[in-house]
Amino acid sequence: MRILILALATGGGSGYSPVASGTAGSIVGLALWALVGGLGGLPYAGVCAAVIGVGIWAAGRAERIFGRHDDGRITIDEVAGMLLSLASLPWRPEVAGVGFLLFRLFDIWKPFPVDWLDRHIKGGLGIMLDDIAAALYALAVIAIGEGVLGVRP
Fold first, then answer.
1. pLDDT of amino acid 112
2. How far is CA 91 from CA 42, 59, 100, 105, 143, in A?
3. Packed helices 76-85 and 21-36: angle between N→C axes, nearest 10 degrees
4. Of 115 and 88, which is predicted with more confidence?
């Protein structure tokens, strides 16, 4: 069971990257989006919900295994964040690039409430929530760019 927990929590091992493990986890999320992004609607939402649910479970258990809150090796939150950042967007290189950069920006910068969630919510839920919030910021910026500026990545 430990191997399964760590495989899931580390985003298929991306969390073991010697540098920028969060970015490596985001790349795994980008690859998963390339595979399932075309599903659209409810099937895509189901994949996102499954990754988030499994992520909460696996991240909470991995946190206990690693012995510290939101250990850098836990990257399932970045996988989920990328999926949400690109929800309902078409698979094109420019879309992938914009979504990736915006998600990484908000995940690293942690504007309110991302920073608050990161500091105050513990366990697997806390690990996942700050990345979900960062993803919603990225998705909002993309939506504003589309709606207000008429720019679609």
1. 94
2. 17, 28, 12, 21, 16
3. 50
4. 115
**What CA–CA distances, in Å, run from 113 to 49, 73, 119, 133, 140?**
21, 23, 10, 7, 14
From the DSSP assignment, how many helices (H) and strands (E) are in the chain? 7, 0
Reduced to 3 states (helix: H, G, I; strand: E, B; else coil), residue 45 is helix
Residue 75: DSSP 8-state? -
Q: For residue 42, what are its two tokens?
A: 């409810």
Q: pLDDT tens digits for 19-46? A: 999 999 999 999 999 999 888 889 999 9
Q: Mean pLDDT of all residues in the chain?
A: 93
The model's pTM is 0.94
Crossing angle of helices 21-36 and 93-109, in 10° steps, is 140
Sequence spans of domains, the chain: 2-147
